[in-house]
Amino acid sequence: MRERFSSLSLIIMKITVTFLLLLPFLSYAGIIINGTRFVYPENDREISLSIENPEEQTTYLIQSWVEKDNQRSNDFIITPPLFKLKPASLNKLRVIKVAPLNQTDQETLYWLHIKSLPAIHENTENNLHIVVKSSFKLFYRPESLNSSAESAFKEVTFSYNNQKVTATNPTGHYITLRELYLNGKEIAEPGMIAPFGQLSWKIVLPQLNSVSWSALNDYGGKTQLISQQLFNDDEKK
């Protein structure tokens, strides 16, 4: 029985998935990927990740590429960029830097995209087949920042003024906040702070006394929760 990966008579649904999950691997639509985010250290020749197909009958066509600022990037290549992943099999993707990157004092954010398309059998013409595009953060990290990666989230400082809380990141790392509590009240999906950048939240409170936060580590896990006493900027004067 022949398999096909495209047909004009089929309805194809695209699903883009953004991953900020505290899992050591990602399992979605039949394939398993061993990570939710990836770090490329400056001195590494390449990094690799595994893609597993645990299904017993379905073959997937896997396509991968790297983007920066919503455009395909020539800074990295992925090999193999396109391959068939047979049932009950595993393959590795190698991400290789092929262009000089001159940023030495801060991380650079790329996106690694992996698209999976299940094989289409001739006797399933009327079935719905789903294309899944999975997007992962890929951080290029200069050598000078390797030693401070684990503790960078502790350097974040918070200020409160005019009913606005501002987080300041004085480091060269991207810091993705996993949890944020203001006076014990959780802020949903607090976001990511760019290197040497700021992130703000509008909040209406008579007074803000404390802030607690955790972040995502290199493996997608949660760091410890730490706290800071907060004062209105006017109270410091």
TrEMBL record:
Pfam families: PapD_C, PapD_N
Gene3D superfamilies per the UniProt record, alphabetical: Immunoglobulins
InterPro entries: Ig-like_fold (IPR013783), PapD-like_sf (IPR008962), Periplasmic_pilus_chap (IPR050643), Pili_assmbl_chap_C_dom_sf (IPR036316), Pili_assmbl_chaperone_bac (IPR001829), Pili_assmbl_chaperone_C (IPR016148), Pili_assmbl_chaperone_N (IPR016147)
Any single GO BP term: cell wall organization
Domain Pili assembly chaperone C-terminal intervals: 168-223
Subcellular location: Periplasm
Chaperone among keywords: yes
Superkingdom classification of source: Bacteria
Domain Pili assembly chaperone N-terminal residues, every copy: 30-145
Major location category of this protein: periplasm
GO cellular component: outer membrane-bounded periplasmic space
Keywords carried by this UniProt record: Chaperone, Periplasm, Signal
Family label: Belongs to the periplasmic pilus chaperone family.
Protein name: Molecular chaperone
Species this chain originates from: Providencia stuartii
